[in-house]
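User: I'm putting together a teaching handout on how multi-component assemblies are represented. Below are the sequence lines for each component of a complex, exactly as they appear in our records. Could you produce the 3D structure of the whole assembly as structure tokens, so the students can see both representations side by side? Please keep the chain order the same as the input.
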Amino acid sequence: MSVESIVQSTQIVLASRPDGAPTTDNFRLEAVNLPELTDGEVLIRIIYLSLDPYMRGRMSSAESYADPVEIGEVMVGGTVGQVINSRHQGFESGDYVLASAGWQSHAVVDGAHLRKLDPAVAPLSTSLGVLGMPGFTAYSGLLKIGQPQEGETVVVAAATGPVGSAVGQIAKRKGARAVGIAGGPEKCAYLRDELGFDAAVDHKAPDFVEQLRTAVPDGIDVYFENVGGEVAEAVLPLLNQYARVPVCGLIAHYNDATAPEGPDRLPGFLSRVLVKSLTIRGFIVSEFESMYGDFLRDVSGWIREGRFAYREDFVDGIENAPTAFIGLLEGKNFGKMLVRVAEES
Amino acid sequence: MSVESIVQSTQIVLASRPDGAPTTDNFRLEAVNLPELTDGEVLIRIIYLSLDPYMRGRMSSAESYADPVEIGEVMVGGTVGQVINSRHQGFESGDYVLASAGWQSHAVVDGAHLRKLDPAVAPLSTSLGVLGMPGFTAYSGLLKIGQPQEGETVVVAAATGPVGSAVGQIAKRKGARAVGIAGGPEKCAYLRDELGFDAAVDHKAPDFVEQLRTAVPDGIDVYFENVGGEVAEAVLPLLNQYARVPVCGLIAHYNDATAPEGPDRLPGFLSRVLVKSLTIRGFIVSEFESMYGDFLRDVSGWIREGRFAYREDFVDGIENAPTAFIGLLEGKNFGKMLVRVAEES
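Assistant: Of course. Below is the structure of the complete assembly, with chains in the same order as your input.
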């Protein structure tokens, strides 16, 4: 073993819990010396950090499906990295890996939790988006819960994002009609022209509700719920009998500190569930792990054949992660939001 | 053909649509001459009329899964009758039949919509309760959507009613723990002592929320939703991951004319759906018709073996149907609510 020089990691830690929408004050940049490797561990430099809406939940202490980030801890997140040094027999210097290393430049990680990536198969960054957690969320939630049938209508919001864009394209492959909701004419044009959605509706337009109704002349059979808020409110009356609503996110509500003012829409919502025999089903992607092989095979195949599009939105430098994340919660990104922490090579 | 004398039917018709809770002013008693039979028709005298919460929905013009009763029309409802005269080859005078003849003393009905009843198999009234639509609602919704597993906890409200009492007893048969919610100590004692529920909770008790929590030490895996309101509010935080909520009724909200005052609980509800991977599924019993044979075989078998209890709450005279129905919506009945319109023989 050679003597190792001490490696420093530039980190974004949680400085305080947000009250409503996060601000840059809730984050703090730190530099720490990483410990030396012990057996089974791997030192990596981070290349890409994924920014995803679920991270807002981890900033709060409210009960959720995962423990919150503690004050002073590094923000959690999926990353692509490259091995600098390894004391795990499965990895050697130069290997590219998928890791949950969080918002930092370097990390010491347990080799047992890494997955090796082959840059020849697909661009490295896709393992955080279309071929990663967001793509798998779309694939598993749509097919297992949404179960779109030929000729049915599937609606998804945040449709240019990594989950929504995959939902629409997979729905098309199942013979369904795909209708996307996005903010602004540029994103809507992208849905129709680049992703092949049958219709796109701008939720910022003053006549959004009317536009949506026109876009779904036969009603809605599957509403893939990843936003909540006013979009969900407009969708609800259009759901057909036996419609399915996979719920994977509620970005419109992540900043709610308390229940919004009334009227109380819950009784009306439940009446709709009853009258229309609706299925509302929350899920987290980890539930469907047994489908992961099918997902990788299908979607990577479609990408290689040029029949599946995706879009990435990069910001450079770990120090810019907080601002990019705040923008993500406001819908400012256009495509999968990634921080380029370092160059690939 | 003999000359038929004209038969008069005493009917309860919808006089006006209720604004909030129905009053007796919304109903009107009428006497009408029934038409003579044409081919395929059957004249029946009604013996039992079933009163069920869904009828409140039919009194309103809001969109629902069935058309509303029009002003001046006879109120809809399931009935047990006896054939007086028949021009349908499947029925003859004296036969007992199940019919959707509504709130009246006599009716001319299409023989194609009748089902013959054998009073030797089970008491005639049970075809409107434990062996009828309410029992089948419990059986199909619990088994198809609730899917209780051995050792899981099933909670149902209005638990002494015809749906709730069947839900609890079927849950027990599947090896689950059954917890019933009912109003008052007498009903709670009946749940424990007569129906074999593992625990009973009084929703009128001041410490109801605390009582419920104590009654479900391992949380709730299936909540059979037939009431909504404060009971649902207390249940929601206790639902386990992957819990299932079949929604067959919302009696607490049937009289809501507008959305209740805030705060708006819908975002919090959906967050819970997401965080706990809940399944919320509305249904109407007609969806599961293919299970009807299994239902009749199982439940009538359990009743014959003395292993399945049910309770009926009779009121005498069609003219008393409105008051009994109003009481039903307030939870005043104790057991399946039936109007005895005439003696069996």
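A couple of points students might notice: The interface with chain B takes residues 63-65, 225, 228-229, 232, 241, 247-250, 252-253, 256, 258-284, 287 of chain A (CB under 8 Å). Residues 133-146 of chain A form the longest helix (14 residues).
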